[in-house]
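input
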Amino acid sequence: MPLRPDLHMVYLIARREFTTRVRSRFFIFGTILFAALLAGYIILQAVVISRVTTTVKVGFSGDAAVLAQPLKAAAAPERVKIDIHQVASAQEGEAQVRDGKLDAAVSGDAASSEVAVQDQLDPTVQATLSALVKQAALNRALKAAGADPGTIEAKVAAADIHLTLLDPNAAERTQRDVVGIFIAALLYVSLLLYGQFVAQGVVEEKANRIVEILLSTVKARHLLFGKVIGIGLVGLLQLTVLGLVALATISRFQVISLPNIGVEAVVGGLLWYVLGFIFYALIFAAAGSMVSRQEDIGQVTGPLSMLVVGTYLAFFWVVANPDNPVAVVLSVIPPFDLVIMPGRMATGDAEVWQVLVSVALTVAAIIGLNILAARIYTNSVLRIGTRVRFSQAWRGVD
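output
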């Protein structure tokens, strides 16, 4: 079934915008660069940061030397590497600590060791050394009492604590918070970037008079909607690619232990990108139609950019206060919900009714903006020269 003439015209304009921008070097190399940076950041988090170890150089002398290997073995699971050094005496060990060659020098009796440090000792090393000294003292006391230390140690090893999880979802919550912040940041950058692209595209066509040729065959509102849809699809394609790259990298390096968190975040992010882009793109396009030079874009889009920035900054307060009534209200009313709600969905704070209300209000706002933006665009896009004031754009008179 063929499209209606007006819809077919919108389709042609959208296809032109989409194909032109997708084939550009800026889009191709930009997408590859962003994907590489995103994957590299995730790999950095998974491989480098997660494997960072602290190396502590410890010198041993006298009877305390028997603690060296047990200390090295006991500290390994705590991501603390013990670098063992043998020193001739306690004095030599202290001298090496002062010179920075050692972090600590252990000397004296194994059951009552002296530890010399410059100013502080790694907490893990300190706790492990303390436990080993106490164990040595216990073994010595058991032997003096005629008991078999091996039998006692076996009973001690068999004993264990009974672990009660007061917040079993704490790890998942932390992961969701990280993903939520990432999604909010990605949407913030995308809405700001592609909103500017829409405004720049409008001004470019207006400055080189292409818009006059286009409007001889197509209505202004159709040109507006086609441009918004075409550029929006470009952004959606780029976000989809980045989302798939992120999911693939996360799955490969297991940055998030629960895969559904990543999938939910990406799907929710794409949904809110569509709503957010349409919302802001209509405003940016209308604003762009009010000026004739690229140099003047900042005058009309500056307040819009500040609004996006303010919404993103408000997200952090909302995440820190998820149950605050003000936070709930901000997450459901446009334009704040366009960044805050997808972030709250990723963190698991948003309830179903809040999401539905937010979507309904956003759709209603978009319908209203359609009328406003189409009128401003129609009344301004053919005016070349000085900046068109809002009152002029609304009334359509000089």
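quick obs: The longest strand covers residues 54-60.
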